[in-house]
Amino acid sequence: MSSKTDLFLIAIIPPNPLGDKIQQLKLEVKEKFNSSHSLNAPPHITLLSPFGMDEELGDNLNSLLEVFAQGFQTLEIQLNDFSTFPPRVVFIDVKKSDPLMELQQKLEETARSKPDMFSYNYHEREYHPHITLAFKDLTKANFRKAWKEFEDRRFNEHFLAGDLSLLKHDGEQWSVIKEFSLGT
Predict the structure, then answer these.
(1) Which of 73, 102, 103 is nearest to 181 (CA)?
(2) Which end of the chain is more exposed for a tag (fewer CB within 10 A), N or C?
(3) Alpha-carbon distance 73 to 100, whole Å?
(4) Is 165 in contact with 45 (CB distance < 8 Å)?
């Protein structure tokens, strides 16, 4: 008997009203540049890219993340203007602070060390924290137009991240299913 594989990701979600402000930017991108794919998830900073996991391991994942999150303190997240991953991605740039980079690195190491739990086989690459505004369905022509609009625009905000969010894909969109408090 085979079990169902679910798709998850682990992220930091900006609190409201900042989250709503970022959501408005995503809606602006949809209206002006015909790119709506980023609306399939709440505004977030991905810490661990989407991974598959057998649904029967859900309790194990929750226990692991509960313990993992307690090993880190609340961290300040600084959002600094906009940037791109050409030819399709426009995003809000996130400052690479030491606490954020360590959190992400340790989370990825944990996933890679538990192949029986995490179907996480991405190539190792430098982590670039960001909040996506447009990707996948943004055409190359609209990418150029969007970047022309955002490259000189300013966006400087910060927030305290107090937890990790586990998101699950339901076949159409990502939703937060559980949050894990950082620190004790």
Answers:
(1) 73
(2) N
(3) 10
(4) no
Q: Amino acid identity of 184?
A: T
For residue 1, the model assigns a pLDDT of 39
DSSP code of 3?
Answer: P
Report the amino acid identity of residue 144: R
Per-residue pLDDT for 120 more than 90?
A: no
Residue 37 makes CB contacts below 8 A (sequence gap 6+) with: 134, 135, 136, 137, 138
Q: pLDDT tens digits for 18-44?
A: 999 999 999 999 999 999 999 999 999
Give the pLDDT confidence score for residue 3 in this predicted structure.
59
The tokens 């890219």 sit on which residue?
49
Kindly report the pTM of this predicted structure: 0.93
Give every CB contact of residue 49 below 8 A, 6+ residues apart in sequence.
Answer: 9, 120, 122
Q: Which two tokens stand for residue 169?
A: 């894909």
- Phi/psi of residue 180, nearest 5 degrees: -125, 120
Q: What is the mean pLDDT of residues 141-169?
A: 96
Cβ neighbours, 10 Å, residue 82? 22
How many C-beta neighbours within 10 Å does residue 155 have?
A: 15
CA–CA distance, 91 with 95 (Å, rounded to integer): 13
Per-residue tokens: 70: 């307690």
